């Protein structure tokens, strides 16, 4: 029996990395210094104790590596995504063994790429540098060609997770959920369940819910999504599915609303939640709910 995986992080692909970092600072988040990848992308992280949001942009297009049948190109995927729009391009799951994930997912009939190991320099809170390393196993689904998924194994977690990066003005504690919008939610329930592990999907009145080890993956129709977030505008037309909302657990949604007001960020109120619409949050709904 494979372990149930959790939400490790969300990849938010943006056109202007510096501007997006400033925008998230206005939302009340701390962000990490710029990190660079050897395949042409760079990032700033919004880190929590157990997961994070990766704000990602193209920083050197000359380093992009093409996609192939046996090699998933992280840079090429995000470059292609950004040619259409900003938004959440990937959902990443936590794991203790990315290579075992590959075997598990192949056994479930998923389209899996060969695990990939890499490392990069990271800046610590005191300004010094260290090295962080990861093994990644990528998965794609032809029913959702615009987005991708992978598991991420940390090889030097003590140098990655830093409390100094986790004290957010808005009181954010963790990514507690993600929403996938699709015309037929039931069609994607088994796939998401296979990604997470052995937890089964639960039918909901407004779609399908799959519980990961540390957060929910909601699959909703465009109609239900628009009813949940009436100020967000229509969900984009996609080829099968789009990752359209990130939910962040906070101590007090009213505190978040006050923080956003101080920084001049418009927000909307939901059912005991506060949310920022895609036109202000780089193509996604950013929802804050009470932890």
Q: Quote the average pLDDT.
A: 94
- Which H/E pattern describes the elements? EHEEEHEHEEEEHEHEEEHEHEEE
Please give the share of residues in helix: 10-25%
Number of helices: 7
> Span from first to last CA?
30 Å
Shape: globular
Q: In CATH's first tier, which class of the largest domain applies? A: Alpha Beta
Looking at the overall shape, the CATH architecture of the largest domain is Roll
CATH superfamily of the largest domain: 2,3-Dihydroxybiphenyl 1,2-Dioxygenase, domain 1
What would you call the structural class? alpha+beta
Oligomer: single chain
Low-confidence runs of at least 5 consecutive residues: none
Strand % is 35-45%
- Give the number of domains: 2
Which radius of gyration do the C-alpha atoms yield? 18 Å
Summarize the biggest pleated sheet. Answer: 9 strands, mixed
What's the total number of strands? 17
CATH topology of the largest domain: 2,3-Dihydroxybiphenyl 1,2-Dioxygenase, domain 1
Summarize the SSE layout with pairings.
Layout (H helix, E strand, L loop, with lengths): L6 E7 L3 H10 L8 E2 L4 E7 L4 E7 L15 H9 L4 E8 L3 H10 L3 E2 L3 E8 L5 E12 L7 E7 L2 H4 L11 E10 L4 H11 L5 E3 L2 E5 L4 E5 L1 H7 L13 E9 L2 H10 L5 E2 L3 E4 L8 E6 L1
Parallel strand pairs: 1-4, 5-9, 10-13, 14-17
Antiparallel strand pairs: 1-5, 2-3, 3-4, 6-8, 7-8, 8-9, 10-14, 11-12, 12-13, 15-16, 16-17
Molecular structure report:
The chain has 291 residues and is an alpha+beta fold. It folds into 2 domains: 7-165, 2,3-Dihydroxybiphenyl 1,2-Dioxygenase, domain 1 (Roll); 172-290, 2,3-Dihydroxybiphenyl 1,2-Dioxygenase, domain 1. Helix content is 21%, strand content 36%. It has 7 helices and 17 strands. Strands 1, 2, 3, 4, 5, 6, 7, 8 and 9 form a 9-stranded mixed beta sheet that branches. A hairpin with a 3-residue loop joins strand 15 (268-269) and strand 16 (273-276). The chain is globular, with a radius of gyration of 18 Å. The model has no long low-confidence stretch (mean pLDDT 94).
């Amino acid at each position: 029996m494979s372990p149930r995986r959790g939400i490790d992080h969300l990849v938010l692909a943006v056109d202007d990395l510096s501007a997006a970092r400033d925008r998230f600072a206005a939302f009340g988040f701390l962000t990490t210094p710029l990190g660079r990848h050897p395949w042409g992308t760079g990032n700033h992280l919004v880190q929590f104790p157990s997961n994070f949001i990766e704000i990602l942009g193209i920083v050197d297009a000359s380093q992009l590596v093409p996609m192939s049948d046996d090699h998933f190109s992280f840079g090429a995927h995000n470059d292609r995504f950004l040619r259409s729009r900003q938004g959440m391009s990937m959902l990443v799951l936590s794991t203790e063994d990315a290579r075992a994930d590959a075997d598990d997912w192949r056994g479930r009939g998923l389209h899996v790429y060969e695990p990939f190991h890499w490392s990069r320099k990271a800046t610590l809170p005191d300004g010094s540098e260290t090295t962080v390393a990861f093994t990644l196993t990528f998965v794609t689904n032809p029913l959702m060609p615009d987005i991708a998924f992978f598991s991420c194994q940390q090889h030097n977690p003590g140098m990655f997770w830093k409390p100094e990066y986790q004290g957010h003005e808005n009181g954010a504690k963790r990514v507690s959920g993600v929403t996938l919008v699709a015309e037929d939610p039931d069609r994607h329930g088994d796939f998401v369940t296979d990604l997470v592990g052995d937890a089964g999907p639960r039918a909901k009145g407004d779609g399908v819910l799959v519980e990961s080890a540390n957060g929910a993956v909601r699959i909703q129709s465009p109609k239900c999504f628009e009813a949940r977030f009436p100020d967000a505008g229509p969900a984009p037309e996609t080829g099968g599915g789009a990752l359209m909302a990130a939910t962040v657990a906070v101590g007090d949604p009213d505190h978040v609303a006050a923080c956003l007001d101080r920084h001049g960020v418009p927000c909307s109120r939901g059912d005991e939640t506060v949310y920022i619409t895609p036109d202000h949050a780089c193509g996604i709904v950013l929802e804050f709910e009470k932890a």
